[in-house]
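cron nightly-structures :: item 1 of 1
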Amino acid sequence: MRETCPTFMKTRERCAVGRADFLRGQPPMSADHTSQLRKRLRVPVIRESRQGALLLLPALIIMAVFTVYPLLDGLWMALTDQNLLRKTIDFIGLNNFARMLSDNVFWLSLEHSIELTSLVVLFQFALGLVLAWAMSQNLPGMTLFKSIIMASWVIPVAATVTMFKFMAQPDIGFINIVLKALGFSNLNRYWLGDLTFAFPFIMLLHLWRNVPFYGIAFLAAMQAIPKTYYEAAEIDGANAWARFRYITLPGIRNMITVMVTIHVLWTFNNFDFVWLATGGGPVNVTDVLPTYIYRQSWSNYDLGYAASMGTVMLVILMIYFVVYMRVLEGQARS
């Protein structure tokens, strides 16, 4: 018969000695005997607080290596004139930040970044709510629609941009073919190369990719709201708008906070859409801070100036996050 360690023995020492006592027919060791045995064997005792610190230590080391150190190094680089074409690195203080004040492309890129982030997140939020409401209805084919709606989000960004660039081609592109069929041949153009429509086309890329994600997330939050709330509101005579305003929106507030925060950070830092679609052109009309920083780093090799612009981006996002969370906390209290 196989003997096992009694469940009340929690340490290796008690378990080993207790098993020997069990086989000899003796009663198991008491807690005092176990403590004395630990002292004789000099087994270290780790307190619970220290155990928690030891468990967190690997994650803290990884964060320090891959997050804290690059952040501090970038902040230091912003105060230098580091350039890949020079071996020497000199400390220049705030000269890089002073240089930004007279850099028109920097201010244009900053304006585009703020405009793109504000409009895209606003439209994604509004269209995501509409999409979530539509998917919550019992309409024919809705099950199939839900199963394919995320296709635009899971397709790689490079494939999405390539597809839209082909669609935007003059004469042979899908958009121009449709416009020609509708009698608007005068609108034939390369949409991503047009000074007027290039920036709205970049916004369209963001919307096409992310609106389904918003819709699915909001739908999941809506389905978690108890139906009894809506039934009680109907009994009280609340119309559809009142139910949406006082039940649905408060019920999905946490999801709205998560989605808006994530996509503000993601859109403001987004590089691949603009770079793959236009490279910041034509004539800087689609330039955003990430693409301008990239060109300063790997075209002009001016790492110090690029790091200073990255620092500005960091400060802007920190200010946004603090203000946004304060506003949400105030709304929650009221």
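cron nightly-structures :: done
Residues 48-95 form one domain.
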